[in-house]
Design goal:
The protein is α+β, with helices and mostly antiparallel strands. The chain has 2 domains: about 10-80, no CATH class; about 125-230, Chitinase A, domain 3. Helices cover about 40% and strands about 20% of the residues. The protein is built from 6 helices and 7 strands, in the order H-H-H-H-E-E-E-E-H-E-H-E-E. It has helices at about 10-20, 30-55, 65-75, 85-120, 170, 185-190, and strands spanning about 125, 135-140, 150-160, 165, 175-180, 200-205, 225-230. Strand 3 (about 150-160) and strand 4 form a beta hairpin. The radius of gyration is 26 Å and the shape is elongated. The model is unreliable at about 1-25 (pLDDT under 50).
């Protein structure tokens, strides 16, 4: 009977747990202290693994069988599940993960829609045909860029909960890019601006990073950008 293979989530869990423990060159622990440390380690691993199970939709797992499986693994005992049973369990785990992602996606989409619907009622917020919402903070006096132009801007990006995920303003250095090289919400929004102007874009997920998300931006996120158009090149 083959041993149960470790999946990617389990590997990631192990890496996170061990990377969070600081190993220093210290004198060997006394026997009593060592016993207490082993107990603490056991609880630490158990609590961390429990959190991982809960996040994966397995909060009603059979604890007795969980402990039995861990004991068998630590003792080098062959698993009590047949290969067919293992495959069935793996399929169920994947199904639960998919269900959780689907629920999270539905919730994120609903929150984004509610925010945009309410925001569209604000005075001076203009909603374009694509769904982009644009608020002029300071009218510019220069030219407006075209899609084929490169621009220099200062910006700050945040989620609808107010958390900032990127900011050239905080870095103290503007950025340059081609309008055709950025997300659709930026490409469209910057063409509505003039040099010297400042605007706020409320960008629907489908004009930003969509279901994939990126970096510190979760899937299906509505994004808010404060943008200053400094120069057209």
């Amino acid at each position: 009977m083959s041993k149960i293979s470790i999946n990617i989530n389990a590997i990631a869990f192990i890496i996170v747990v061990f990377s969070s423990i600081s190993f220093a060159a210290e004198p060997e622990q006394e026997p009593d202290n060592k016993g207490a440390l082993e107990a603490d380690l056991g609880y630490f691993f158990g609590y961390s693994f429990g959190n991982m199970l809960k996040e994966g939709g397995n909060d009603s797992i059979n604890i007795e069988k969980l402990v039995e499986g861990m004991q068998h693994a630590l003792e080098g005992v062959e698993p009590a599940l047949t290969q067919t049973q293992q495959e069935a369990v793996i399929a169920e785990v994947r199904a639960r993960q998919t269900m959780i992602k689907d629920r999270q996606a539905e919730a994120a989409i609903a929150i984004g829609r509610e925010f945009l619907a309410a925001n569209a009622l604000q005075d001076e917020v203009v909603v374009t045909a694509s769904g982009l919402q644009h608020l002029v903070l300071e009218e510019g006096t220069g030219a407006a860029p075209l899609k084929e132009n490169r621009v220099v801007v200062h910006y700050q990006g945040s989620l609808i909960d107010g958390s900032i995920f990127d900011s050239s303003i905080q870095r103290g250095e503007p950025v340059e890019f081609g309008l055709a090289q950025v997300i659709p919400g930026w490409t469209e929004g910057l063409q509505l601006m003039k040099v010297g102007g400042k605007s706020r874009f409320f960008i629907p997920s489908d004009l930003a990073y969509g279901p994939a998300g990126t970096g510190g931006i979760p899937p299906h996120s509505v994004l808010i950008f404060d943008v200053e158009l400094i120069e057209i090149k």
